[in-house]
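Hi team, as promised in this morning's meeting, here are the two structures we talked about. I've kept the exact order from the run log so nobody has to guess. The first one is mostly here for context; it's the second one we should focus on when we meet again. Sequence first, then the predicted structure tokens.
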Amino acid sequence: MKAAVRTGRYGDAALLAAFAVGLAVSSVHWVGIVVAGVLVGLTASSVRRAFVLGLTFAGILVVVFAAWMAWHGAFGAWVGAGPIPLLTVVTSLLAPVAAVGARVLG
């Protein structure tokens, strides 16, 4: 079953679903970043790919959050808030750590 999701016919669909679910859960709570990392790690075909996909998710997450802040007119205030933007980026890096951990253990 694991091999079918990782490299089989439904591998890309499973990965896309992991990204979508991860973004949805991350919009509700920061623990969603870890959930997304675990889901991405479970659908990755190797540990290296899990790390790269986790970094990709983290980048997408930061871009989507920045776009959301810009949409609501708070981007300038967010960037000027001192260490808060850095905290956002560092927190998003939980995704690749969780992805690699899930791939190694799963």
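And here is the second protein, the one for discussion:
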Amino acid sequence: MRWGGPALRLTVLVGDTDLWHHRPLAGEIVRRARAAGLAGASVFHGVEGYGAGRAVHSAGLLSISDGLPVAVVIVDRAERVRAFLPRLDELLGSRGLVTVEEVDVYGGPEADG
């Protein structure tokens, strides 16, 4: 069944070298989102960016490619996304940036539950 209507988009911005217990942090966020029953999560790997430290990281041939930006994007119904937010606190600590935005979904797959 497909659904549409109001939802929230949760975006978590971290670096590709950020780890959680020796595993990529972005992957751990996806794993926990799945365990929480969220409709879906995608990880997008950036080619250039900078964060609070103001150092630019780039995938260019002559530049340091550690710490490239990674965005984990999750879209689901508002109550599901808001219930997931406290689970991010343990993972992120002082790392990363989290944004929550209202979106309208058109034709997305219905999540279980």
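Starting points for discussion:
The chain has a mean pLDDT of 86.
The CA atoms of residues 17 and 66 lie 7 Å apart.
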